[in-house]
Specification:
The structure holds two protein chains of two kinds.
Chain A lengths: L1 E8 L6 E6 L4 H12 L8 E6 L2 E2 L16 E7 L16
Chain B lengths: L3 H9 L10 H4 L2 H4 L20 H22 L2 H4 L4 H31 L3 H26 L10 H4 L6 H16 L2 H31 L2 H17 L3 H11 L1 H30 L9 H19 L8 H20 L14 H10 L4 H18 L34 E5 L2 E5 L2 H9 L1 H4 L5 H6 L7 H8 L17 H9 L13
Antiparallel strand pairs in B: 1-2
Helix pairs in contact in B: 4-11, 6-7, 6-9, 6-10, 6-13, 7-11, 10-11, 10-12, 10-13, 10-14, 12-13, 13-15, 15-17, 16-17
The chains are: A alpha+beta, B mainly alpha.
Chain lengths: 94, 506
């Protein structure tokens, strides 16, 4: 089943409508969001996904994480310390 | 013959006591507005212009003659061709969002011309309706001549009749503000907040820019309209005074609600024009500086004079001065095919200017523009898609604009579940406005709701073509088609210097 989510990438300017399958993993969801924002936000080597301030396990599925339609999720890009942009924080949004 | 001062007061104050019907029947509360008060509460209503109809017609005739003469001489396609493409985009954005909104304001003024509670108010509203009809016709006439040269100008008339996302947002605002508000809310929202607070910002600011870029016709058009606005905006003050005496809580709520709704709209239309679409050499002030001069220094004073407090979200508003229109513009640039005007990619010189004007915030936007610019450099001229998003964006369930609240570091969107439906809002004030009158807003479907309900395509290209009413010839593109001299020489060669914050190369 497709699950529409409001996705926000830290460093980006706008919310994105991402459609994922409930069987997709959080890691796959992260990749979808990174690609969707890549025009404005340089894709980072890693990323963490949050819902309501709580980090989601990348190995969980969308259904397993309990995500439902039109929830807000946040993605925080992770850079190696040497490459980290000055403005990128590490705390969860939302 | 009677002198003007002998007959005008009588002509303006033609109220009488009803004998066959009650005052309630003549002025029912649902269409006359709340709180419902006896006429005695309104009979001191006055405004400073006190124009007679004869004077109104004479003045308007002079304005029309002056503007028409200039238009006939320099309002042709060959004159428009000489203007900067970015500036023309500002004209397209402004004219599309305002021409038919002014027509909706005719309806709001006519409602007050019938149901306003004092005859002087009704007379002033009648002039207001005639003003707004003129403000509809002027841009339609001027820009229609340019359609055969550039189809994007057709959106001056077409915009409000489409399901373009900006049009959905604009209708959500205009339908409530101008078409459905009762005369009391209309006077506070439109005349006091929208016109007194923001129209100056819009028309004075843009007409000054028009002069600087050499667009004499648009300069005079905006000036001519602004003088009308300055007169009929005066309707707001005496209505607000009476409302403050009888229901100050409602007065404050209306001001708080409409200041925020107006602000978002103006930040997009005027913020884009002042900080991005006007060529750098013609910018004299940043959008923020202009807001500080016209709103923070002037409108704020008027609020306090009326005994009102600053809107409860004032700190949020002040913070948004540094962020909101930058958030929306970066989003719009990378979804420019979803709008009807071209967008300018800010180069190193423009970004240096923005960094100087917005020291508190622009460091968060610079990496975004560097990323977009690098992709444009890699793609080369005339390639649009590599700097364009393909995933649909999401929209606020109150203002219907894209979710661009807050900062790149922390977007302020929040979700709320109500009656089994999940809503999302871009900001605290939008959530507050919605939750203050949920029955008014809950049934409206955003673009996302329409996509999920199968009423609009989820595929972005099909969404643009089938639902937004755009096609490749008229949708927004990069204003220079990616041919910027600074892209060819690279950022360092163009004087950009080191990347702020030392961010990795895109």
């Amino acid at each position: 089943m497709l699950v529409p989510l409001h996705g926000f990438v830290q460093g980006d300017t706008v919310g994105l409508l991402v459609l994922v399958h409930d069987t997709d993993t959080i890691a796959q969801l992260a990749r979808v969001l990174v690609d969707a924002a890549a025009v404005r936000v340089l894709p980072a080597p890693g990323a963490r996904v949050y819902r309501g301030g709580s980090e989601l396990d990348p190995a969980l599925t969308v259904a397993g994480a309990g995500l439902s339609a039109l929830e807000r999720i946040d993605l925080i890009p992770e850079w190696p310390a040497a490459d980290r942009p000055a403005d990128s924080g590490t705390e969860a949004g939302g | 013959m009677l002198k003007r001062e002998d007959w005008l007061p009588l002509a303006r104050k033609l109220d009488w006591e009803f004998s066959y019907v009650s005052e309630h029947d003549v002025f029912p509360e649902p269409v006359s507005g709340s709180p419902w008060l006896e006429h005695s509460a309104w009979q001191g209503w006055d405004e400073p212009y006190r124009t007679s109809y004869r004077e109104y017609v004479q003045t308007q005739h002079q304005k029309e003659s002056r503007w028409s003469a200039v238009r006939e001489v320099i309002g042709r396609v060959e004159d428009a061709r000489k203007l900067d493409r970015g500036w023309l985009s500002a004209v397209k954005l402004h004219s599309a969002t305002f021409a038919l909104a002014e027509f909706a304001a005719v309806v709001g003024n006519l409602r007050a011309a019938r149901f306003g509670r004092d005859s002087a108010w009704r007379i002033a509203a009648t002039y207001g309706a005639l003003d707004e009809l003129r403000h509809t016709q002027i841009p339609l006439l001027l820009l229609h001549d340019l359609v055969r040269w550039d189809a994007q100008f057709d959106w001056t008339h077409k915009f409000f009749h489409t399901n373009n996302w900006v049009a959905i947002a604009a209708r959500h605002l205009v339908d409530e503000l101008l078409l459905t508000a009762d005369p009391i809310e209309f006077a506070v929202a439109t005349h006091f907040v929208f016109e007194t607070g923001f129209t100056n910002l819009q028309f004075v600011g843009l007409s000054a820019l028009a002069r600087d870029v050499g667009d004499r016709v648009v300069e005079l058009m905006l000036q001519s309209i602004q003088t009308d606005e300055a007169r009929h905006a005066q309707i707001g003050n005496p209505v607000l005074d009476t409302l403050m005496r009888h229901d100050p809580v409602r007065a404050q709520r209306l001001v708080d609600k409409w200041f925020w709704r107006s602000w978002l709209f103006f930040a997009v239309v005027t913020g884009f024009a002042m900080d991005y679409l006007t060529p750098l050499e013609h910018r004299r002030q940043s959008f923020k500086e202009f807001v500080e001069e016209w709103i923070l220094a002037q409108f704020k004073e008027q609020l306090l004079q009326h005994g009102l407090e600053l809107p409860w979200y004032w700190p949020t508003f002040l913070r948004s001065l540094d962020y909101y229109h930058h958030m929306v513009y970066a989003s719009a640039y990378t979804y420019r095919a979803s709008v009807w005007f071209d967008c300018v990619l800010p180069g190193p010189a423009e970004r240096a200017w923005l960094a100087a004007k917005y020291p508190a915030s622009f460091a968060e936007f610079d990496p975004i523009w560097r990323c977009v610019a690098e992709r444009q450099r890699q793609a080369g001229p005339k390639v649009e898609w590599y700097t364009h998003g393909t995933t649909p964006v999401t929209f606020c369930d109150l203002c219907q604009l894209v979710l661009c609240g807050g900062t790149p570091r922390e977007n302020t969107a929040r979700t709320v579940v109500r009656d089994g439906r999940r809503y999302i809002f871009c900001s605290d004030p939008c959530q507050w406005i919605f939750e203050s009158e949920p029955e008014r807003y809950a049934a409206h479907e955003s673009v996302v709701g329409r996509i999920l309900a199968g009423k609009a395509p989820a595929n972005l290209l099909e969404l643009l073509r089938q639902y937004f009413g755009l096609h490749q010839d008229m949708w927004g593109k990069d204003a220079a088609r990616g041919e910027y001299p600074w892209l060819a020489v690279g950022e360092a060669g163009a004087g950009a210097g080191a990347a702020p914050g030392g961010e990795p190369p895109c």
